[in-house]
Amino acid sequence: MTSLRQYSICAIVIALLSSAAAAQTYTITDLGLLSGSDGAFAYGVNDLAQVTGGASFPGNSEAFFWTKSHGVRQLKAPPGYSSLVAYALNNLGDSVGQAVTPSGGHAMLWTHDGEVIDLGTPPGFQSSTAYDVNDRGVVAGWGSSNPAFIWTRSKGFYVLPTLPGSFQTVAWRINLRNHVVGFADFDNGTTHAFLWTPEKGIRNLGIPPGGNISEALGNNNFGQIVGDGGVLGEEHALLWREDGEDVIDLGVLPGDGASLAYAVNDFGQVVGYSGSSNSSDDRAFVWTRDRGMEDLNNLIPAGSGWVLSTATFINLEGMICGYGTFNGTTHGFLLTPTHN
């Protein structure tokens, strides 16, 4: 999800100076639960502070859309569709994800004006999932066991080329320039991050020395890409530049063995999680060049009842969504900077 708005150099400088002066703190909003659900996961937040995600039910899941004025509501699907989840949204309020249809898993688009569109699948494939949509309405995702794709209303599916030797590719994020990032799996057991652009095609972002995995999971409009890489189970969050000249290991939180970055906004702020082989130990983080990696649990009011496990997206305003436990139950959250 990307923004159409442009920001002045002055605004960027002010934001960077503010982050250098003191640790950013946040207020936290509980996104609540759909009636009857036993958990919720927030996956995307746009610049209007609208949030989308998935709610778990016994034997099923439902997609949700949240706004400050209307709270949480369920995203609908045609009769017979089940196991819905929404992974991202754009600044128009269009959400994308997947639903299990009578013929298999299909990528779904829920528009801001109430339209529900089953995107179907790329020709010759049985299932599909949509992971992102930009403000131009271009959807990115993947089809079962092979192709990453983009989709538009006017042209339908365009299957992206694969990395040589890979047997499947997954498109995870797309920015306003239609630059797509994701990862490709190979027969030798390795996974490689990739960047695809309309101008230059697909490019392998490589694996850190001695590692066997890299994944590109987020990108912004200024050539920065985030994800993870290293040895599976011990990978670190990474920050790439599209020009390939700079790859930064973001490290881990103290005491942890692995980390993963899910998103980077246009100010270069990164979010994700840090943890160990036990996912119950995961902690949500925010990273900036000035302050490095910080545990978001230390940046919210004490005694809130929250344990923030994963930060999934950060918008241009610095608002962060994700999920954690609130008084023992998994809830989605929205963090709002206090601009201290």
Strand and helix layout:
Layout: H1 9-21, E1 26-30, E2 39-45, E3 51-57, E4 60-67, E5 71-74, E6 82-89, E7 95-101, E8 104-110, E9 116-120, E10 128-133, E11 139-143, E12 148-152, E13 156-159, E14 166-174, E15 180-186, E16 191-197, E17 201-206, E18 213-219, E19 224-230, E20 236-241, E21 247-251, E22 258-264, E23 270-275, E24 283-288, E25 292-295, E26 306-314, E27 320-326, E28 329-337
Explain what this protein looks like in three dimensions.
By secondary structure, this protein is mainly beta. It has a single domain (9-337), classed as 7 Propeller (Methylamine Dehydrogenase, Chain H), CATH 2.130.10.10. It is built from one helix and 28 strands. It has one helix spanning 9-21, and strands spanning 26-30, 39-45, 51-57, 60-67, 71-74, 82-89, 95-101, 104-110, 116-120, 128-133, 139-143, 148-152, 156-159, 166-174, 180-186, 191-197, 201-206, 213-219, 224-230, 236-241, 247-251, 258-264, 270-275, 283-288, 292-295, 306-314, 320-326, 329-337. It has a four-stranded antiparallel β-sheet with strand order 1-28-27-26, with no helix packed on it. Strands 2-3-4-5 form a four-stranded antiparallel β-sheet, with no helix packed on it. The longest helix has 13 residues, at 9-21. The two termini are 27 Å apart.
